[in-house]
Amino acid sequence: MDLKGKRLLILGGSRISCEIVRHARAMGIVTGVTDWYPLEKSPAKQAADEAYYVNTTDIDAMAELVREKKFDGIFTGFTDSVLPYYADICERVGFPAYGTREQFELFIDKTKYKALMREFDVPTIPEFTVNTDRFDESVKDIVFPVIVKPADSSGSRGITVCENAEELKKAISFAADTSKAKEILVEQYIDNAEATVFWLFVDGRYYMMLLGNRHIKHNQEGELPLPAGYTYPAAVQPKFLAEVAPKMEKMFRSVGIKDGMMFMQCKIVDGTCVVYDIGYRLTGSLEYINLKGVCGYDPLDMMIRFALTGSMEEPDIDKKADPYLGGAYAYNVSLLCRPGKIAEIRGLEEIRKLPGVLEAVVAHPVGDVITEAMKGRLAQITVRILGRAADIESMKNEMLKIQELAHVISDTGEEMILPGLEESDFTGTIYEQ
Q: I need a labelling partner for 138 at 20 to 30 A (CA). Which of 128, 155, 206, 402 fits?
């Protein structure tokens, strides 16, 4: 489908939104980016053909911008908070949105989507009710540790693991301050291995695209563990497809999901994927790069096409959307960095020449600062390297080689990359084709 010359307005100018700009421009689409940030603080504006300064929450002003500049479609990608406004703007100007405001609000609010999952017997993390007015009484039956999080936040913001009631009280206040709705969730903390499930929705048809191991690392004392990499497909995939996926499909159908994509982060408990987080949107793990390189389709490109045509259709998608990757493997090495100012990134040229590497995407370029406030958040991921492999051993060796070659050096001359993947991370976690 030729979209050359079509005009796409992208909501939000964060650095990761440069991925949307890059893909759209490669398709010949004219890109505009809007948010209220100045140009120097909006990397996607700098990358786009056109930059605007209209606040994405101002529906009237956004509608005027769309009409005045004659845009043909609207899209947003990686931020939950923008999604309801995206749906409202699209409805106002008569453009297709891949989800409705009600659907986005449902899958942004952890309390709401956990209730929906329980209705359809989809495994989810047990939670506790805490009454702040009767705090001591309401926490006496809680079994610690617990994890406290805002009900409506993402990117690991506002989250704390608590070992006792005193820590819990402080964590509730912290999470509430981070939550727009001032709502918090207290869940059992399960320190198990993790997996992420990726779904693709095409005109009411549901495809489980990938199920990958999310290799988290306890490499910062007192902070939440973050992913140092992903490997696909995960060993738990057959059980998930047989036991859990059908329940999820019924759940999607019950709320009218038709188009777009969704990721679900899970803890693995007795071989079962237990969901703890959902995003009805693109995710920073950039798995569409793996899918394009291994299976020949790109969910990001499909969603850009939808914004301009109202259709997610892709030739031969029934064959291409194979969660077993046609017998191949895929990976993502996520380089986490400790706080500091980035002075140099070394090794990317050599890494990009490795046989399986598809792309190396820099989230924080030279000059960026990893702040103390970013610790324990996904914002610490500085570079993502995505690739494919014919077998598990090749994948393991290439991922470990990437970690040897990569260096992020601070302005004080110190290595910033935190400890990453180890040999043991690959044992028993990957599905043997």
A: 155
Angle at 249 between CA 243 and CA 255, to 5 degrees: 140
As a whole number of angstroms, the distance between CA 375 and CA 381 comes to 10
Average pLDDT over residues 338-364: 98
Q: How confident is the model at residue 396 (pLDDT cuts 50, 70, 90)?
A: very high
Work out the average pLDDT over 316-325: 98
In a domain? residue 349 = yes
* pLDDT grade for 197, boundaries at 50, 70 and 90: very high
pLDDT at 155: 58
Mean pLDDT of the chain: 95
**Domain region containing 220:** 194-426
Does 422 lie in the same domain as 283? yes
Give Cα 391 to chain centroid, integer Å.
Answer: 26
| Residue pointed to by tokens 């793990």 | 285
Mean pLDDT of 262-289: 96
Same domain as 392, residue 329: yes
Identify the pLDDT of residue 278.
96
Query: Domain of 275: which CATH number?
Result: 3.30.470.20
The domain total for the chain is 3
Mark whether 289 and 420 lie in a shared domain. Answer: yes
What is the spatial distance between Cα 287 and Cα 408, in angstroms, rounded to a whole number? 23
